[in-house]
Here is the input.
Amino acid sequence: MVEGVECGRISYGLLKEFLNQNNFMRYFIGILFVLAGVLLVFKAEWFYQNFGTNAWAEEHLGTSGGTRLMYKLIGIAFIFIGFMTITNLTSQFLTATIGRLFISQ
Here is the structure.
């Protein structure tokens, strides 16, 4: 049973319940990102047939398979973001890579 609020302070039970819900959403969103990435990687041909070519991808990523490669690269990025979300490393990764551009020392 969850304990209530006592004397204007949040009890340990409510804090623990909130943290568990936050972890659940982090896992859920991360798994959704991973599944979307796997779908993009394995079904790149389906996306290519249904959405057509991308002029930028065809010009810069290859002559006839640039769009398929773009879908696969986006899928790999989704998988990477999903695993970072699941392991709670998103803020550390952003701080270590692009965070140094915005933080003055």
